[in-house]
Amino acid sequence: MIKLTINSLDVSVEKGTTILEAARFLGFPIPTLCHMEGLSSYGACRLCVVEIGEGPRAKLVSSCTYPAEEGMKVRTASARVLKARKMILELLLASCPQSKTIQDLASAHGIRQQRFKQEYEDCILCGLCVRMCQEQMMAKAIGFRNRGEKRSIGTPFDVKSDICRLCGGCMYICPACQLRCTYNEPQKAICGGCANLTPPCVDKEQFDDMMCYMDPCVACEIKKD
Amino acid sequence: MQRLSSINELKELRSVLFKTADENKPRIVICAGTACQASGSSDIIRVAKKYIIENNLAEKVGLRITGCHGFCEMGPFILTEPQQAFYTQVKLSDIPRIIEALLENKYVEELLYQDPSTQEKYYNRDDIPFFKNQKRSILGLNQKIDPIRVHGYIAQEGYTAFEKVLSKKDAQWVVQQVKDSQLRGRGGGGFPTGLKWELLAKQPDKGGKFLVCNADEGDPGAYMDRSILEGNPHSIIEGMLIGAYGTGANEGIVYVRNEYPIAVKHLNIALKQARQLGLLGNNILGTDFSFDIKIVKGAGAFVCGEETALIRSIEGKMGEPRQRPPFPVEKGINGKPTAINNVETWANVPLIFRLGAEKFARIGTEKNSGTKIFSLVGKIKNTGLVEVPMGISIKDIVYNIGGGSVSKTRIKAVQTGGPSGGCIPADKFDLPVDYDSLTKAGSIMGSGGMIVMDDNTCMVDVAKYFMNFLKDESCGKCFTCRKGTQRMYEILDDISKGKGTMEHLELLKELAEAVKDTTMCGLGQTASNPVLSTLHYFYDEYRRHVVDKKCDSFVCKELVGAPCQAACPLGTEVWRYAALIEKGKYKEAYKVIREPNPFPSVCARVCGRECESRCNLAASGDEAVAIRILKRFITDRIDPAVYKPVRAWRNGKKARRVAVIGAGPAGISAAHYLSLLGHKVTIVEAGDVPGGMLLSCIPAYRLPRDVARREIDLLLNDENIDIRYNTVLGRDITIDELFKAGFSAVFLAIGADKSWRLDIEGEDAQGVYSSMEFLKAFNLRGEELAKGHVGIVGGGNSAVDAARVAMRQKAVKSVTMLYRRTNQEMPAYAEEVEAAIEEGIRLETLVSPVGIRYVKAAEAEGVKIESFVQPIKIDARDGHIVDIQCVRNKLGDVDVSGRRRPVPIPGSEFTIALDTLVAAIGERPDSDCLASMGLQLDKGGRVKVDAKTLLTDRQGVFAGGDLVTGPNTVVEAVAAGKKAANLIDQYLQGKELVEPVQIKMPKVFIEPAVVSEEELEEAVKRAEPAILPAESRKNSFEEVELTLSVEQAKREARRCLRCDLEFTQQKKNEDAQLAAVEGKSK
Fold this sequence. Notes:
The complex is a heterodimer. Chain A is α+β, with helices and mostly antiparallel strands. Chain A has helices at residues 19-26, 79-95, 100-108, 128-136, 169-173, 218-224, and strands at residues 2-6, 9-13, 49-52, 59-62, 73-75, 143-145, 152-154. In chain A, a hairpin with a 6-residue loop joins strand 6 and strand 7 (152-154). The termini of chain A are far apart. In chain A, 39% of the residues are buried. Residues 178-225 of chain A have low confidence and may be disordered. By secondary structure, chain B is an alpha/beta fold. Chain B has 7 domains: 24-81 and 85-123, 3-Layer(aba) Sandwich (Glutaredoxin); 150-362, Rossmann fold (3-Layer(aba) Sandwich); 366-416 and 423-447, Ubiquitin-like (UB roll) (Roll), CATH 3.10.20.600; 458-560, NADH-ubiquinone oxidoreductase 51kDa subunit, iron-sulphur binding domain (de novo design (two linked rop proteins)), CATH 1.20.1440.230; 563-644 and 1002-1063, Fumarate Reductase Iron-sulfur Protein, Chain B, domain 2; 657-753 and 925-988, FAD/NAD(P)-binding domain; 755-924, FAD/NAD(P)-binding domain (3-Layer(bba) Sandwich), CATH 3.50.50. In chain B, strand 9 (364-365) and strand 10 form a beta hairpin. Classes of the chains: A alpha+beta, B alpha/beta. At the A-B interface, strand 4 and helix 2 of A face helix 18, helix 19 and helix 20 of B.
């Protein structure tokens, strides 16, 4: 067993346990986007960063990939962690404003504005679908391609895959498309401000009484420009 | 090659090689490194071989083809042995001469390396400063070894270190030696190599351990790893063999990028030879030690230099880093323990065993032992690979080895560590180069790239460049690294296009810190460094881009527009009048020149010509367009009357009265523009003529009196302008009195016409004048103060003016200028200095005066000094200068401005007999009286003003021109006057004082000239106006420079690159498209 402290609480876990698992065991909430039980940890979204070490050696690590070590002192919500997390969420929001998962996380972390140029992407390259396909569906039909700015997910050479069984696991697990604000079900949409952005399949009038939880709403901000 | 079956056989082989090698045999050494091959060394080698064979010289002269020597700037080159003569930038036709000279033990003088700044020739390569100041323990071997012949390496004590290790038969000792040597990883992180080996050695051996040589060198501008692999591959093999013996590894891998074909080729050959010799494989040299190395070629992803990504790449997976722990020494390639070291680290290993760990540890500094190779590139004289002991200062590398700035421009910063490194500003150049100091300064050692930047490098652009690289080369796994670098690039791009805001700077910093904090691997964690370090050290430059929308380095296109226009303090549309001259529309050209500049004819003769120094033609290696001379061409032939200044209609508002103090260019231009704005101006002038320095200081042969007078009179002949001569501020009138007399605002432009004193003994002797005193006496009163032998101290424009005026005076026998630095550093316009020398003026550079001797004082030197003697008598009898005592200087340390400080050489004193001495070491404003009127002055007597509003500490009192800047160019003074006029107008209207931020962009489209193919091919030289021959101008004050002919002017105007078209043509096309679309829709 490995003994460590998380937010000053002592805990002992089995060898090989990640910080994330240990923290969640104690009930400390750590937001994640690219982590899913049953799939291997990847560490792509960086939302789960926690602070370890002390003094000048203190650093942020992704808790989903970092193994618990003897005597380790973990802080899951220090000022440094929260600041970093906020910036990550702001970046996420700037890229994928329409993902409800991201909207909810941003809201919960008190993000009130988004200062980057707005993009409308539908993928944050968290890699959940890739791992789902490979590890649970045993298909390996999709994977990452290219690097840096050009990185994307898809089948090799964009050719329709023979291995793919169209199981839909990849779509089910996607944090960017999963629970995305579905305009034709207003009761599920909290914000609806995004309905102003791209022509949705419903009339905007339906959202008149909606309260935008983003203040100011990202979408409304953009509209002003 | 026979397989060696014991250590002794290797030793025997070496001794045989030693005996057969003839050290004294003449030999030419040619570098065939990638850089030299690119500059043509393969042809040189071929021709040299052919020459040797055809002339049957193979017995007499040897030829060695080697890897990189480091001085890539000078390639292709030939080094001769044993002479050590170094012939640079050799041409094919030079080879026979070089070989012949070598055989006769002579030198081909004109091909020898010559120091570009001192012109000194070097006969021995090791005396060249570039080599002399290095410690080349690794690179130095390259020149002695033919990389494709193992015997060459063995003869240079190759594999002796491995021999020692094998004989010692103690793996622990090996690891301990490396630990004791304190060698740290040369890949950039600086992890102690010995410690890494120890960790690997401790790992249980379950199915093998790996050693990896990381040759995935990907930094832009860094190529030391390639040079080692190309030039000395066996040193890597030997290092890895030692490592394997120490750590128990049984498999070695060299991970090298596929873009290094020569490195791969040489390494393959070396591996094959080592296997043949029994130095690799099973039972090496007959012992039970087995180890082999294979090559894995990488596809060139920058991130694969990161060790976990490298491991994945070797495994055949996508090159992206993974979480550490577990560290590669625990779980590496295929889950087996793996130690990864950089090429340079491996190359250092044999050296440790050859020298002994203790001796190795003594090189460099504590905790940072050994040498480090840097690739020194950028705006520096000597580019190439340099190897220096750790802990040497950046200054030493940049100035002593690199030779300083390649041009006159000041070196601003050094970027170390490649894309993830940072910039270190020039004032931190004393920083020792080691892992810890660089990290502390916000940069990293990285693999050792060192890019030198000067004032022509824009730091925002630098950060943008590296961010562009990183956003492509980030693996993309971590969201913050992938998106963060993209977003940082986006913001930097906005800033460079003038769309940045102060909030952007905040956000940029916040984002950069977040990226640094939240990414997984070394690439991401250092990716923010270019942004953070430039933000930290060059925040003002960012502010300048964001607030003033200016790029002072003239790099950011969207902020610069046409560089000539942006450089002009008055914003003259140079490109426009050049285009109009080409079209023959001279009147329009005059209007373009006159519109922003009330002194066109004056500026056509005396101008600082920032426009020419920023001309893109000059930046691309050609000579700048002769802008001033084109302006002269127009002003000489067009009547100023074609331009009618536009007077502002004051809309019934009451005109206010403004006092302008000083009738120099700044004062007159302020008065002129104030008058155009409808104000009544009274100029108060201390002298009895207007024009200030234009008439009192600048000699007539440069600026004819009638030209200057005509222009001044034209401006002063204005019903709104009234001028009062012989009225001195402070003596005859005060600022308070001016306000009382009903003036609503005061503009101070009294210039800077008081000479600095030399501050040496005897300065008050007769015959010693200040430059201002001397020039004014002549220019205003016609008095000729210079007699006999004349000395001028100083190197600025006024020193040259004084020298040339003196030369033209009747009683003068000779004129000598004394300047304390080299004439390359003279602040005067280079052409003026040349003209002065042509006229027969001697130039004594690197000389500083130490004291002037009186006749009586000289006598007194022989006399015993008695107390109570009254010195007054001696002065009264005779006090005229007879000579000046000087001491020679040499170049010393580099000062903050990047120039070498002159240092006197003791014992080199000498005297020059003189009858007249003019001190022209600079001017300052004669502003003492202003302090008593409540204005703040700095040490140089300059008035302190708000740079943006020109407002002094007193309400309603503005100041500009030389009074604020110190001695400056005419055009700057005119610009200051113009700016002051606008600000004073705003002040008088009770508006907030702001200078509108505007980017001076070309707006008018002028059809470009059609340039024929032939014209493009024949390189048109910059037009040089005819000048009076030196003989005839020596005694006259006629204008030296003549005007261009129509033909010359047209040809010169056609040389203009028309940088404006990039902005105007696009707009024109867009307009045309828009019109077309609208036309259709109608």
